[in-house]
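Technical note accompanying the year-one report. For the benefit of new consortium partners, we illustrate the data format agreed upon in the data management plan: each record pairs a sequence with a structure-token string. No post-processing was applied to the example shown here.
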Amino acid sequence: MLRRTFDIFASSLGLLALLPLFVVLAVWVKVDSRGPVFYRAPRAGQGGRPFKLWKFRSMVTDAASRGPGITAGGDPRVTRAGAFLRKTKMDELPQLINVLRGEMTFVGPRPEDPRYIAKRPELYAAALKLKPGVTGAGSLEFRDEEAVLAGKDLEAAYFEEVLPRKLAADVAYARRQTLRTDIAMILKTVGRMFR
């Protein structure tokens, strides 16, 4: 209950405070390439419940038909505005809407595409018991995931190298998670956005 109260308060405050930045980023996305400002990605939430993840669009509108759902560094589908948004993680800011709606929390495992869960359900079993987060231990450990995957067979590298370690970090964090550690992780994430 305390975490949900914090989520509602902090996401509402964040959306209000970031509104001017959202306007600037929305205009940039719209001017930079054709298509909508936001990308609504299908994701699996706690218990596998489906929801739509809010993000600033960082790729061309037909990206799904031009390549895999996993992105590596240098992907030609990423727009100019998108490259900046992805590098700074500002494309993730609209997920405050998902937090406010109760579909996500601030700190937890990253919500995954149901198609990938269907391929390797055993990897996701423990993480799906948790509410997905905007940031988390696995996300911070693999902040440069696109660079790690560059030049490799994307899906094989993702499932064999990256994903098991990310999920293990998230599940281990959940065992000792408190509101205090969550706030520390949020501040750490914000600090890394501007490095």
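Partners are asked to follow this layout when depositing records. Residues 88 and 195 are 8 Å apart (CA to CA).
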